[in-house]
Amino acid sequence: MNGSMLCVDPLPWFDCDMDTRACNEHDLVALRNAWPTADDVHGAHYTEQREGTATYLVAWQDEEPLGSGLIQWHGPIGMNARAAFPDSVEVNHLQVRPELRGRGVGTVLLKAAEQLAENRGYKLIAVGVALDNPDATRLYRRLGYTPTGVIDVCAYDWTDDDGQQHHEIETDQLLIKRLSP
């Protein structure tokens, strides 16, 4: 699966051709150049993919990355979510470059993730969404994900583009979608 194209129909309202595929070594170089992150997030996600625990999906227009997301094949990462839905996969770290938000990139990434999960025989796919992220919640609900009432709290550190360290505590709600039988 590494680096192969996924068949996801382009969205009629998106104004460019978009390819969505699992990240490969060539893609990793392009990601680091076009969409740099202080903590090499792309490298960390690609490492998870190489270890077989995840698939790092990236949406592209030509050689330009539009957005990305990680499919966790061993289930939800939150303790409560994993206990409640141990047989699901989870899409996390879904992000779209700020200037491209609202143009269908997130939808295409989620549809590609759903297709991959279904192809592997999974019946449930989950997303965790921060309680203070209503835009993402609206997207997930529109795509058929339903709230479960399962809440997890996680703490993490990250570095911004200016090298400033941040500590975050995030409260996430798990949403779930049943895939085709």
UniProtKB/TrEMBL annotation:
Keyword Zinc-finger included in the entry's annotation: no
Entry-linked PROSITE patterns: GNAT
Domain N-acetyltransferase: 18-180
Organism (species): Jatrophihabitans lederbergiae
Protein name: GNAT family N-acetyltransferase
Keyword Acyltransferase part of the UniProt annotation: yes
Pfam families in UniProt: Acetyltransf_1 (PF00583)
CDD domains to which the protein is assigned, alphabetical: NAT_SF
InterPro entries xrefs: Acyl_CoA_acyltransferase, Bact_Acetyltransf, GNAT_dom
Keywords of the record: Acyltransferase, Transferase
Parts of the chain that traverse the membrane: none
